[in-house]
Design the sequence.
């Protein structure tokens, strides 16, 4: 394993094109994703050369949700305050859908892989 890591590092150094980080703007949202790199002649990158971190996509995950504090009084249909006998709830093996796809105009952080043939959108850029 160590030899593979060493070889990968040598390959990057030999390529003369090390990994670089860029700011970009999403021009076209998925599925026809394209981005424009800033500071590099405003280069437009097409979807064929882009890899996107899962957190920036619409995706589903299996989750277990639980709560042990269900004690609030509620009013339903004007029937007045009442208590439920529930004190906890567990949703085991449930599915949660994340609707976090990139949108046109968003600023993103892009890492160009050595060789310049793939670009990884690793996160959104937010300014406070």
Sequence:
């Amino acid at each position: 394993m160590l030899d593979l890591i060493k070889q990968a590092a040598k390959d990057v150094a030999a390529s003369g094109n090390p990994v670089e980080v860029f700011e970009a703007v999403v021009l076209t949202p998925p599925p026809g994703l394209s981005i424009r790199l800033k500071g590099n002649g405003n280069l437009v990158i097409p979807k064929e050369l882009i890899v996107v971190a899962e957190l920036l996509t619409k995706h589903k995950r299996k989750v277990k949700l639980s709560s042990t504090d269900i004690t609030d009084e509620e009013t339903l249909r004007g029937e007045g305050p009442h208590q439920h006998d529930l004190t906890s709830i567990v949703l085991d093996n449930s599915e949660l859908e994340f609707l976090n796809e990139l949108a046109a105009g968003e600023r993103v952080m892009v890492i160009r892989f050595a060789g310049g043939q793939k670009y990884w959108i690793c996160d959104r850029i937010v300014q406070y």
Q: What stands out?
A: The radius of gyration is 23 Å. The mean pLDDT is 82.
